[in-house]
Amino acid sequence: MLQPLQTKFLNVMKTIFPDFPQLFVEWNMDINHLMSGQDDYQPSQTLKAFFVILDSLVKNYGLKFEEMEQWVDDYIEEIRDFVLPYIQIIGEENSAHSPKSNNREVINALLNQNFAESGSALLFHKLRETISKNEFDIATDIPTARIAERALEATAQVRAENDYLMMKSNVAIEQWKNLTSQAITSMDDLTADIFDIVSILWMQQATHKDQMIHFHTDDALNLRRLQGRKEDLDGYQMSYRKKERDDIMKRLAALTTIWIRIEKENLRFINEDQGDFEEIGQVQFNPLFLVDSVTVAYRGDNPIGIYECSIRPGEMLANFLYGSQRSSGLLALKTLEYHPIKQKYHKRLSRYLSWQWRIRQKSADYLRAYHIGGDKGLLKVMDLDVNPRYGSRIREQFEEILDTLQQDGIIKGWSYKEK
User: Fold this and answer.
1) What is the DSSP letter of 274?
2) 363-405: per-residue pLDDT in tens?
3) Please, are residues 335 and 351 in contact by the beta-carbon 8 Å criterion?
4) DSSP structural state of residue 44
5) Residue 249: closest CA among 186, 319, 165
6) Which residues contact 73 (CB under 8 A, 6 or more apart)?
């Protein structure tokens, strides 16, 4: 009897507080402790408040506790009004120690500038490109992408492995598998944005290579300058719409499934300033990002994505983003604001140009012309359809993209150069 009642209770909780998925984790843990017979266990203040208002409703309106799924929709506002102050009090008590407050300061600072430091290594750029265009081969048992460019040979795979996560229960492991099983369908330009955003925030805050940072879904939405339904005193946007949050949560979950391996016998990290290099031998597959303290958001029994977590780059990626051997450049933050479907070509061209400018910095040949067509041309970079039948339409679209990048301050100007 207790187990079905616990399930009903948690389902009701998800219905009433879909915007506080962390409560599901806390209350599920509380209920398990209470059901295990620990007489001295004290549940959270929020759960106590929830019990109090439910008990009050049952007594005042002659309701049955075990039938809560049938009547709870009629009292959602009353329940939320009673419990929310306790959630906010807990949040205020923890705010001084919350890593999220550090993110707010970083994000607010970033929103006052046009460019941010991001990765510019060849591997970083090619991985981001692979993700944005979803170049993983799904014909293999494990979706795999081969990266071969200049001296770089690497393999990226989409895996639902969880060996590095501290999951002790079979239920948690199964939930993680369900969450990541559809990751391959979420590889797109928005996932590439999350790749950039996590990397930027980590580079802004990391004091050593193994440092975790806190990441919240709203951090990404703020950096993409999407408008929330509420605004905090510091300007940080909150209370986003369900679809906006879902889109980010799915992509963050997808990002955690990517594993990479360098195929070359040795990989050199060159320090351009000092003229020396550090050589790293061939390594096994390791995750692109490591996550911990994961809060998974649910709708009913279905996991939607990662609502918030602690995160850092995996060993391989961290070598490119931290320390004297890191390779970084400036990414126009406007890139993150472009619509991931309607303006995906704007995103791809902006990312590519940022990477190219960092490469050309050494020889100061910024004005060297770019090819438009061909395997290395800008149309190929954007993956823009180049059907010869629609030549004039392609040219018009290409010029519109360049004009937009110019208007948004990503490029100063552009012109054609005769051969």
Assistant:
1) T
2) 788 888 999 988 889 999 999 987 777 778 999 999 999 999 9
3) yes
4) -
5) 186
6) 15
